[in-house]
Write the structure tokens for this entry.
Amino acid sequence: MKPSPEEIAAAIAAEEAKRVNLPAGEPVAAFLRTAQALTPALFERRLAVAALVEPAAEPGLALRFAMRPVADGATLARRNWAEGDAFIADFGEHLTGYLSFTAAPTGSVADSPIRLRLTFGEVPTDVAEPLHPYRGWISAAWLPEEVITIDDLPAAFRLARRHAFRYVKVEVLAASRRFGVCFENLTAHAVTSARGAPASLPDSYPEWLRRIDLVSQHTLRDCLQTCFEDGPRRDRRLWVGDLRLQALVNYETFRENDVVKRCLYLFAGLPRSDGLVNGCVYERPVPTYADTTTLDYAALYCVTLQEYVAATGDLACGRELWPVARRQIDCLLARLDETLMFHDGGETWCFIDWAFGLDKSAATHAVIVFALRRMLALAGAIGTAAEVAHFGPIIDGMVAAARAQLFDAARGLYLSGPSMQVSCATQAWMVLAGIPESDAAARAALRNALADPQAVRPITPYLYHYIAEAMLACGMDDEALQLVRVYWGGMLDAGADTFWEAFDPAEPLASPYGDIHANSYCHAWSCSPAWLFRARGLGRPAPPPHHPETPCK
């Protein structure tokens, strides 16, 4: 049963009450200077209104509404709007950017200001139903609406705040009865630091797969600003977990590798007092320590650095940030018990997924092993292998501890926490860490969890990605492809132009925040299918059979 907003808020508060928040460390000025020197330019393109639309209730759709065209977008400038009127403009695609227009009086000179409410919609639900009353546990200031007053008409107006949107609902809240209002040149200014568009997948790929690949690219494009934002609507900041998946897709698509490098230096430049990197960094108005440390993300910082060096050959960056990565491992290993097991005591946040009630101990244990293996690979590349020769025995010990303490042989599953919880998260990370004794055992663990109706399931594309990546790691290619088709394809079927922060096919209106209007519908951690297709070969068509020519006699 889906938890209520009040239950979600109470669980979050209880989790936060356990945390021990250490102060910020001393910023590393050299790293921050490197990051700022790598700040990319933003490129703008302008979009006119494609159509005026209205929502139609569709109970069979995941988000309950569909948009119906009512007029061509070019007719907007010929229409007049009075106090109490409203319209919805559709720009035809999702974008991150700004809105501008000219408001002019019609019928008479303007003898009063006008007051407008602008509601920005990534999906129909945003503009089809009221945003209030709001029940979420994160700030209502994230809701995508603006109330503006324009004193003197006619006036050219450009909204200062950036939004993520496809739809804009314009309501005339107040105006004099003596004149109407005409909106001319209503324009969306889309911005991104992505240059150009990657080549499409060949036509030999299935159409559904090519659509998922394209929407994955659009998701990354709209999150690719002066850093890799998690979501251009919310949180509009840099997170380690999102960065890893964005960077992987970037290497295969836009190749804005300096932005990846910038992000790595931003994290390195703003450590916690014990040396752990933040889970996220506030980029504006100046790079700022975020006071949100996440153990699994600290481990993934090491992985992201190793993958950056492997993708770019930038050994100098790898060497310069090597001490930062080493410090993450030292801090993580200090949290193991005498048997080399990690237990989530709650003092520092472990994320893994937003699934309600998820026990994260076993998955985080496996993430640490995953990071240790990647640190050995990085050390080999940059010539520091002697420093971490002791990592091999630690990995062996952590693997043995997990097999002995977490594996239920009778059920073929790894369990987590005092309640011996079964979750898809635990199995996926155990497989990625190389903990099962064989690929057959890894496949069984994944299949058993996915078949167990009591297993805790993901609600984010972030964890669904790691299930798919784990499937590929143990030879479940067909099942990984089906997972992508059903899960990401389900978002397409629901009308997605970009992929979402959270999507539970069984509960499409579920929100980690207690209100779907707080959800982000263009979110970085959901763009990974493009990497699965392009780098890992998922869904790649078999080459045509080769028929050698028969020599003539």
